[in-house]
Design brief:
Helix content is 38%, strand content 17%. It has 1067 residues and is α/β, with parallel strands linked by helices. The chain folds into four domains: 347 residues, TIM Barrel (Alpha-Beta Barrel), CATH 3.20.20.300; 156 residues, Glycoside hydrolase family 3 C-terminal domain (Rossmann fold), CATH 3.40.50.1700; 187 residues, 3-Layer(aba) Sandwich (Aminopeptidase); 262 residues, no CATH class. Helix 20 links the parallel strand 17 and strand 18. It comes from Neurospora crassa (strain ATCC 24698 / 74-OR23-1A / CBS 708.71 / DSM 1257 / FGSC 987).
Length: 1067
Amino acid sequence: MLIMGWDGTEVTPQIRELITDHHLGSILLTAKNLKSAHQTAKLVQELQTIAHNAGHPYPLLIALDQENGGVNSLFDEEHICQFPSSMGQAAAGSPDLSYQLAKATATEVSACGVNLILGPVLDVLTNARYQPLGVRATSDDPQEVSQYGIAAMKGYKDAGVATCGKHFPSYGNLDFLGSSLDIPIITQTLEELALSALVPFRNAIATGKLDAMFVGGCGITNPSMKVAHACLSEQVVDELLREELGFTGVAISECLEMEALRTEMGVRTGTIMAVQAGCDLVLLCRAYDVQLEAISGLKLGLENEVLTKERVYTSLRRVLKMKRGCTDWAKALNPPGISLLKQIHPSHLALSMKAYDDSITVMRDNEKLLPLNESMHQEEELLLLTPLVKPLPASAMTKTILEGSTKIRSENPIHDKWIHRERSAIMSGEGVFRELGRSLARARHGKLLHTSYTANGVRPVHESLIQRASTIILLTADANRNLYQAGFTKHVAMMCSLLKASGHKKNLIVVAVSSPYDFAMDKSIGTYICTFDFTETAMSALVRALCGAFTPHGTLPGTLRKAPRKAVQSSAGGKSKTRTQHWLVEPYDVERDTKGLQDLLFAMVRGSAPNHQYFYAFGPHSFSLLSDMMMVEQQHEEEPKMEEQHFVVRNSSTGALYGFCSTYYLPSTFTGIIGAIFVDPSKRNLSIGYSLHRRAVRNLLQKHPDIKHFQLGCCLPGIFPGIPLDHSDALSMSSAITPGSTTSSTAASSGLKSWLSTTCGWDLSPSSSSVVRTRKIYNLLLPSLQTWSSPPDLPTTLQLAGISFDLIPGGGGSSGRTTNSTPNSSLSAEQESVLSFVSSHSTPEILTLYRLALLQSPPLFSSSALSYSSVSSASPTDPTTYNNNHHNNNHNNTWIIRAKIQSQSQSQSQSQSSQAPGVVEGGGGGAGGGAEQVIGTIIISSDLGRELHLPSLSSASGSSSGGTGGIIAPVVSSMTGQQQQQQQQQANLLLVLQGLVMLGLRQNKREKMACCLLSWVSNGNGSGGSGSRDGGQQQNNSVETLLGMGFEVQQVWEEVVNGVEQFASLA
């Protein structure tokens, strides 16, 4: 009728005597008894052997607290897995997962000989914010507590372990009076308890699978009941638990070594009262003298007939029934031990990682600070602020401390032992989160500052570190009970807000590592994450979440989970439908909105990811079509002009812009374009983006009834050529090609795609009939141009393929032959051939770009002129030398390189001609006309890229002391007709692309450029160029080929074109 424990990791004479002489039949093991799984199995086996030799008819009950989270008694990094707390499991949102975790936990402890788990916790956190129980409970919803508690109970039972619900009648809403001798009090009436706190206990009992019930030691004070200690009250145990709820299993009392209970009535009286109340096992945790006092109390109770034999026999029958259900001598004397644990450990380890990943909850991320690599640069400093907390009993830190104190006890005098103990407490408090800091630094490959904080508040060292860091991660652990943490967090949040207002980047992320209620309702904390415990495994999951290894999907349990659902209602089709707020959308007015757009762009810069920092280079006019473009279009009056119309959501009182959307229309292809949608980071998730998109689509439909297509992304102006993508997501290549890429960016782009698809109505599936075209557009960087060298075999390969190149000036310069077949008689035949080729093999936007390059005159291209007088020192037969005889004195700095293919006879005759070595003069052939065929073009001009707001060129301009060269918009086509049949093996798309890019790099290198940017490389539906319409398998390899030449990926976008029918409902 007693369940006892002791301090120590070995069988002591006292516990041996209790088993042999006093027939103790139940043992409670705690963390102080257990060093490892192997030691636990041996210890339990020894205890059972002692009982067997002493003539016990049934094995000992071996009980253990193994709730997971921060409450585990058995810790062994090699063999025992850590799983989330009860609330953490509920945050994962899967009762089936909770069942699996309970079964895994029970299987592991059963392998060590344990046959009774003191769980599951069935308390309802009626007053969740101020209860010490915290994350040990599932939630504040009695039905949810029931659901997860019963799932855990079934998991324990299926692993062959007895279960014990706790803490009856409830520890979920206690009043504390302050003194250490005061017992926490339940003040709810029985009716109130029946509607909430008692629901999980009633439901668990109804399953018939609950073997035992742990009855708490709290008091109850209400109009119908005055109870000093629940476990000593017949009203609570016999009447409420057994008669009203129908429980027939074993009732276990709270430990009678509680100071208040011992002081008020003594252990003897307490033991008798517990049995009289209906408890079958009375718990005495560790003190041997107290345990002997309890035994003597039972004897005296029987001798004095205060306790009846029938009452004792009733308890014995219940206890023996539970023993028969969970153990026998064969099992008790031969626990599986390490052999079984080694077999199941890998699968349990994977289950643990999944459970913790699923439990991590991001309650708010208003400024999109997650993942870290999307909101801060690698070179920026990250500050970690952590509270001083006591190490968890089952943790590597506690194990280290215990091992150290054991050594101290054996070596040092008593005075030194106390000094060591005090110092250890401080050092261990600092060290609890030390590994978190190290892991976080390793994961992000950047500098991390880490210090702790105490009740002393914000000190000068904290202020100094906050000034240095761009992002601060602040941990709290039960801030509602440790009020200094709440005050410190508020102070730091205020500092970050003031620094941010003065133009400093100060991002604050608050992480609640215990109770999620610390700042759950405080919306001034913009980014708030909950981990539900601070075990090493939980902190590893936190690091993975912060660094984007996975996207957290956990949700706060109970009423906190239900609160966000108010914004969601079910539609007739069964799908969730988010309520949207319709904002007033107005046309963009240049005079009125220029300053507002500038401020909006600045806000975007502060809140944008590192790979979108090219926003710095742009201003309000970056989204407008250039006057130079208008001039080009006027020279082609027979072609309809590209149009633009932009929209804003604005505060009419202050003039501030909350959102901006740019749209364009291409009459030649009947395509409406959504060029960009921006929303102020502080105004997101308010349907502003949705309102802008809706107005933009409606305007294009109404203004252009003949519209056929809608396009996401615009190459001209080129702020956003498409949906921003992660490098690895876009390339679909090996990680070696894109070092350092993570799944976090993929998750971010997936979130944007999800918004475009579910909220805005875009079809983003490439295989869908609504999708006209998808293609990826890349900006690539060659970082060290002056040390770059061209592939040694490439010139020879090009020569053997019969490919030649010539150089055509831009900026309107022409001294060659002209043709009257076009509206612009100033164009040379070579220039006309370029436009004819691009027109046939690319998009109208790219064609306009080439027109700008060829027809625009200074001052657009007026910076340092490029000289092509001594182009190459290549061999006389090097086909990569230019036909430059028309332009040696031209000082334009925008050029077109043209690739051509000739017949074999012409190639042979040319090599014997008297022309300059390696020079191939461009004939008058157009795209496929005459004896030669244009098969590729490329633009060389860094200035043109900056004028057109190419992101990579704009951001890199001036970043290098040697300047940044630009190569823009390669357009490549396969050959046609007989020549394709004869020379297809030699002149392929990738070869032409390599040749064009190599020449561009050579020229930029001669001009002493430090690096070179290659913009508008398409890798979608086409054959290698920007917007190429040709099919071909080679297209998929073009970017990989360029990476092989030394380029690195800077940005990637996905351009998507849908048919107009996709948006018919908005017409």
